[in-house]
Amino acid sequence: MHSVTVKCEFLGGLDVIFGGVRKSECTVAAQEPPTVKDLMYHITETLLVDKKDFDVFVEDGTIRPGILVLINDTDWELEGEDEYVLQDGDVIAFTSTLHGG
């Protein structure tokens, strides 16, 4: 079993679905070295306040379009998206660009 500890940030209003938490330290464990996809499921299982908000964060098995994901201040598209293998101390920022009105 592999595990890593990363820092997560929820910005652009995403903190609302995570109980007002803007920053959290997450320890992710998986059979293989944990990826951003493993982190996504860890977050939705442990930090999501109301499970009906799952679709606000996840769509089609990955982070929903309209949520920018930065891995150590780099766009996750340059890092392999949800297949990026997490390293201890990584900072993963999720920023919603979807604002209601």
Automatic annotation (TrEMBL):
According to the UniProt entry, where is the signal peptide?
none
Q: Name one Pfam family in it.
A: Urm1
List the CDD domains.
Answer: Ubl_Urm1
- Offer a single GO CC term for the protein: cytosol
One GO term under biological process is: invasive growth in response to glucose limitation
Q: Write out the coiled-coil annotation as residue ranges.
A: none
What PANTHER family does this protein map onto?
RURM1 PROTEIN
Protein name (record): Ubiquitin-related modifier 1
Gene name? URM1
